[in-house]
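Q: I have 321 residues here and want to know how they pack in 3D. Can you give me a structure?
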Amino acid sequence: MLTNILILLAGLALVVFGADYLVDGASGIARKAGLSEFLIGLTIVGIGTSTPEMVVSFFGAFQGKSDVAIGNVIGSNIFNILFILGLTAIILPVGITKENLRRDIPLNLLVSLLLVGIGTRTALGLGTENTLTRAGGLFFLLLFVLYMVLSFRSGKAQQDEEEPGAAAPTRKTVWYVLMVLGGLAGLVIGGRLFVNAATDIARMAGWSDKFIAITILAGGTSLPELVTCIVAAAKQKDALALGNILGSNISNVLLILGGSALIHPLSFSNITPVDYIAFLSGGVLLLLLALVHPRRLLGRGGGALLVACEAAYMTFLICQL
């Protein structure tokens, strides 16, 4: 037990240092390339911080454990918006652009609805199995590629709305690339150490695969997003934090579950209606909170509401043990 606790602390330290370098490096690349910090967060940072989820879900698919692959992604996406983005907004209100409201936030919600539709096909009378097949996985991957292409094309045509007058960074581009790579390495290795230690402790307690996946694994694999967003908020880079969360969530569903389904078809048989409600609630609340705020912000009150919803969901899961 003591060894596992020490590994947890070592993993956490790596994640914290990795996030600091990743945020600074990604911000520098955005300035050098003339792209918005939101786009960099959506793509480079969002996909990079989703690497732990990818590892866990792919291994779960290889072993034929759908509960691990699906539960990890559903739990991570819930945790990302309700807890991580909520906590980020409490630290620093998150600005929402017109493009976010028009495209990025609705797309995150549509992707979530698509996954829930597949997972509830039998209840909707649209099929005989609630399974993401290999064909469905390929479709998800094609959607992911299309979204990345459209995002970069749109990003190249936009000015950085979050900091329009920011001075260009003085370091060379290669230095910022190295900072991003080093930061991602710290996040991935540290996150993996954290997840392994936390999972060992959970198995000692006799918890089920689904509960471990949707809580311990989901929270642990979202540790890179959590620390990255907190660091971004501390550095007044709320656009990068928002891009990180939306990019991570979209990557989790389209890229990670799409790839996992190609490895092995994924059954949704053990995912409950409450899990689906929590999964969709983050995207719905984010959209509504952004629309009702007079300055298009996810403010501290909205952030507190999101965190409260995550606490309620975790309480429900624990009570079901």
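Q: Anything worth noting?
A: The longest helix spans residues 2-33. The radius of gyration is 19 Å.
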